[in-house]
Amino acid sequence: MTILSSKDNSNIKNAVRLRKSAKHRRESGLFIAEGVRICIDAMLSKADIDTFFASEKAAAKYAYEFEQLRKYSAKAFVVSDKIFNQICDTESPQGFLCVIKALDKSGSFDKIKTGDKFLALDNLQDPSNLGTILRTAEALNVTGVVLSDDCCDIYSPKVVRGSMGAVFRLPFVVSTSIAEYLNTHSELESYAAVVSSSADKITETSFASPCIVAVGNEGNGLKEDTISACKHKITIPMTGRAESLNAAVAASIIMWEMMK
Amino acid sequence: MTILSSKDNSNIKNAVRLRKSAKHRRESGLFIAEGVRICIDAMLSKADIDTFFASEKAAAKYAYEFEQLRKYSAKAFVVSDKIFNQICDTESPQGFLCVIKALDKSGSFDKIKTGDKFLALDNLQDPSNLGTILRTAEALNVTGVVLSDDCCDIYSPKVVRGSMGAVFRLPFVVSTSIAEYLNTHSELESYAAVVSSSADKITETSFASPCIVAVGNEGNGLKEDTISACKHKITIPMTGRAESLNAAVAASIIMWEMMK
């Protein structure tokens, strides 16, 4: 196999652009995953891997995984260690990087079934929070996630990593707004998560099914029109300091109560 | 007020060392907090502020907060914007930084009372996770946190920031090992959080009081001797992918079930 050792190679250039630019990811319908475990995870999740890059060192160190991914991917390249480190997002890259085709996973949303329980995210901004939330949603068996189109990019490298591969498997759909989504899906019982002593406590809420719970932005919570579009308001009762849960923790506790 | 504009000033040198070195924090009994909100929070929490630094810009922009902190702190300095940016940990510093005396907050652990519910952290390594866990513990009114001495430093700038100031208020104690702590506190009903289908489900556990729940390392979970020292094993039942919760989320769901 030829070893790529120039940053000017068009495949490498494309990977670097995909890492840096949400716009390029959107326009090309491609995104990247970095790390041995997550690349293997992409393959096992039957993600459509367009290009697989491995550093010289990693191709030798993870020879078995390298061989599997080389066969599975449409294109595969070995890259000099120096160039590989320059194209990666992480501080200590493990030497595997895949360019993956974004799939339309909105199928699960076409026909809503009894038993379905969705999460809606309204203007969530932090990629670490989004990654953690997707990971939790998958672990707790949430049916799918609806994101408002002003959320951070679900295909950013940080989200892909933080989600531990949930992004390859969990059904999700991006909607212009959560309010619009709710208005066109009135068969869902909808719950707005707010910080308010007058809202229903999640400990006393029996989540109907099919249903959807909306969680908002880290600093500002849900948009007003999202709250209005929901049939119920719910809140996490706190005996200590109120308004003091991290967004990913709040979403996780709500999903926990919804799913258990 | 004189404006410090040299990195060689001994106060500035000390702050930089405190930011970088856990050893220096431990030996001096001092740590730092960065940001307007968190410095104000330290003051409102009656933390013992040894030195307060503000950048020229921030002293003007947050004149009211600057004045309060200047009066409250033992020493206060205005620092040129250029030098301030060099001493800060965050990418876009807000221009406030405090050097704070670490307090002995182990008092709450001397006499354990009915109603007390503690969290034990065994070799937790990620400062973001620790910050988030402390924040959640405070919000949910956990009595206090016991940390094994191989956890990451609770006074690292990332933990202080991520905890949203909980580190100023939440009682905690560092113990040589969680097993040792449990063995010398047999009055506590103790629960080891594990990933195991044979452990008691947290949904079916009625947490006794006083009690303590032990949560382990991000990759490896609890140490064997910690599990052995606990009276019960508990687990988070997951219908989706098991072993796939982020450590801070797992700890938060467990605290939620323990406290609600």
UniProtKB/TrEMBL annotation, chains A, B:
An example molecular function term from Gene Ontology annotations: RNA methyltransferase activity
UniProt keyword list: Methyltransferase, Transferase
Transmembrane segments: none
Boundaries of every RNA 2-O ribose methyltransferase substrate binding domain copy: 32-106
SUPFAM superfamilies: alpha/beta knot, L30e-like
Methyltransferase among keywords: yes
GO CC, one annotated term: cytoplasm
One family name in Pfam for this protein: MRM3-like_sub_bind
One GO process term, biological-process aspect: RNA processing
Record EC number: 2.1.1.208
InterPro entries: Alpha/beta_knot_MTases, MRM3-like_sub_bind, Ribosomal_eL30-like_sf, rRNA_Methyltransferase, SpoU_MeTrfase, SpoU_subst-bd, tRNA_m1G_MTases_N
Matches recorded under Gene3D superfamilies: 3.30.1330.30, 3.40.1280.10
Family per similarity comment: Belongs to the class IV-like SAM-binding methyltransferase superfamily. RNA methyltransferase TrmH family.
The protein's name: 23S rRNA (Uridine(2479)-2'-O)-methyltransferase
Underlying gene: aviRb
